[in-house]
Write a structure and sequence with these properties.
Blueprint lengths: L1 H24 L7 H23 L8 H40 L6 H27 L4 E8 L10 E5 L10 H13 L4 E5 L7 H8 L11 E4 L2 H5 L2 H10 L3 E2 L3 E7 L2 E7 L16 H5 L8 E5 L6 H7 L3 E4 L10 H5 L8 E5 L2 E5 L18 E8 L5
Parallel strand pairs: 1-12, 2-3, 3-4, 4-5, 7-8, 8-9, 9-11
Antiparallel strand pairs: 2-12, 6-7, 10-11
C-alpha cells in the first residue's frame, strides 16, 4: 500500500513538472500550430512512459518488460534535462528582466524568449544523445596511484582493479558485462575488487547475464561486497550465485594475502544499510578486521557506500574502495549526492584513511552519463612519504 501511494505521488509530481515545462516553452516557441501540438503529444507521452518504465521490472513477460524499460528510462533521461534546462532558462530570463527593470528600459527580449524556447529542447536532445553514448560505451580505464607510508617493497606497485555499480538489469545485459570483464582481465591485476550494486533484478532473470563475472581473473582472485541494490533484489540468493561463479564474497570478513613475502589484509563489509533488510547483515568494518594480523601495513576495505569511511578510519584501515554515488551520473544530480555521501568521486583522505570512490562501471536508471564518466579503476599502491 505504501509503495503504491509513493508511486502515485511520484506520478502526480511528474505531471506537475511536465505542465510547468509545457507552459513555459510551448507558447513562447516561434513555431506553427502543428509543431505546438506535436510538443504537447511528446509531453503527454513522456508523462505516460516514465512511470511505465519505472514499473516495467514488475512485468514478467519478456522481451516486453525490457522494451518498456528502455523506452521509459530514455524518456526519463530526456525529460530530466528538459526540466533542468527549462528552469535554467527561467533563471536567465528573470535576471534579464531585473537588469532591464533596473535600467528603466522595456522589460524582456522577445527574440531571446522565443529563441531560447527552441534552444531548450534542442539542448535536451543533444545532451541525452551524448549521455547515451557515454553510458553505453565500455567504461574507460582510470589509473590512480595511492601512496602508502612504510609500504613493504614487494607491495610497491601492487595493482587492484575496481569495478562497481554495473547494475545488470533491464538495459544492461551479458554483452555489456563481457566487455567489462575482458578489459579488467587485460590489465592483469593482482586483485579485483567488485564494490557492490552488480545487479538490479532477481537471480532467475539475470543469472545468465552475470555469468561472465565468473571469468574475472587476478593473481589473488576477485572479491565482492554487496550494495544496496543486491538487497532490493534478494541478497542471500545473489551472494550464493556470486560464490557459485567463483567470486569471494566478503560479508564483514577478511582474508590475508601473501604477496611475495609481504602480507596484506583484504576485508569487506555488507552495504551500509544492509541491517535494515536483515539484522544479521549489519555492516561492521571493525568486525571485518577482527583477528587480522596487526603488522600488516596494508589493510584494504571494500565498502559499497563512502559513508562507511568514518568507521573504517576508526578501525585502522589503510584504504577504502567504494562506489554507490555514480559520481552523480549526470548533471545536476552530482550536486545532490554531496548531501548524502561524504565523498562523490575520486581519491580523498579522512584522517589516516585513503578513500577511493568510483563513479561506477555501468549506470542506473536512464542510460545516460553526462559530466560523470563511468570507469574501470586501476589502483596502484606506491611508496608514500610520511605525513603525506
Amino acid at each position: 500500500m505504501r509503495r503504491s501511494a509513493f508511486f502515485f505521488r511520484v506520478i502526480g509530481i511528474g505531471i506537475l513538472f511536465h505542465l510547468y515545462v509545457g507552459v513555459r516553452l510551448i507558447p513562447a516557441a516561434p513555431v506553427g500550430a502543428p509543431l505546438r501540438w506535436l510538443a504537447v503529444l511528446v509531453l503527454v507521452a513522456s508523462v505516460l512512459l516514465i512511470p511505465l518504465g519505472m514499473a516495467a521490472r514488475t512485468i514478467e513477460q519478456q522481451p516486453l518488460s525490457d522494451r518498456l524499460a528502455w523506452i521509459g528510462l530514455i524518456a526519463m533521461g530526456f525529460f530530466s534535462s528538459l526540466l533542468v534546462l527549462t528552469f535554467a532558462r527561467d533563471v536567465v530570463l528573470l535576471a534579464i528582466h531585473l537588469v532591464d527593470w533596473a535600467r528603466g528600459v522595456p522589460i524582456g527580449s522577445p527574440v531571446f524568449i522565443a529563441q531560447s524556447a527552441l534552444a531548450v529542447p534542442a539542448l535536451a536532445v543533444l545532451s541525452s544523445a551524448v549521455g547515451f553514448y557515454n553510458a553505453r560505451r565500455r567504461a574507460p580505464i582510470v589509473t590512480v596511484d595511492v601512496p602508502i607510508d612504510n609500504l613493504p617493497a614487494p607491495l610497491n606497485g601492487f595493482t587492484i582493479v575496481q569495478i562497481s555499480d554495473i547494475h545488470v538489469g533491464p538495459t544492461i545485459k551479458r554483452h555489456y558485462v563481457e566487455r567489462i570483464v575482458a578489459a579488467v582481465n587485460g590489465l592483469e591485476p593482482d586483485l579485483i575488487a567488485v564494490t557492490g550494486d552488480v545487479v538490479d533484478g532477481a537471480v532467475p532473470h539475470l543469472a545468465d547475464h552475470t555469468r561472465p563475472l565468473g571469468a574475472l581473473s587476478a593473481r589473488h582472485g576477485a572479491f565482492l561486497v554487496t550494495g544496496n541494490h543486491e538487497y532490493y533484489s534478494g541478497a542471500d540468493k545473489w551472494v550464493a550465485e556470486f560464490r557459485r561463479l567463483g567470486l569471494t564474497v566478503l560479508m564483514n570478513q577478511h582474508v590475508v594475502l601473501n604477496h611475495d613475502g609481504a602480507r596484506a589484509v583484504v576485508a569487506g563489509v555488507t552495504d551500509y544499510n544492509a541491517g535494515s533488510f536483515d539484522p544479521a547483515h549489519k555492516s561492521d568494518p571493525a568486525a571485518a578486521l577482527q583477528g587480522a594480523p596487526t603488522d600488516a601495513t596494508v589493510r584494504l576495505l571494500l565498502a559499497h557506500q563512502p559513508r562507511s569511511a568514518p568507521a573504517a578510519a576508526a578501525a585502522g584501515y589503510t584504504l577504502q574502495l567504494s562506489g554507490h554515488t555514480h559520481g552523480g551520473q549526470f548533471f545536476p544530480w552530482n550536486f545532490f549526492v554531496r548531501l548524502q555521501q561524504p565523498f562523490v568521486a575520486g581519491l580523498a583522505r579522512l584522517d589516516g584513511l585513503w578513500v577511493y570512490t568510483s563513479r561506477g562501471t555501468g549506470y542506473w536508471g536512464p542510460p545516460k552519463r553526462l559530466g560523470a564518466p563511468s570507469e574501470i579503476t586501476r589502483l596502484r599502491l606506491v611508496t608514500g612519504v610520511s605525513g603525506a
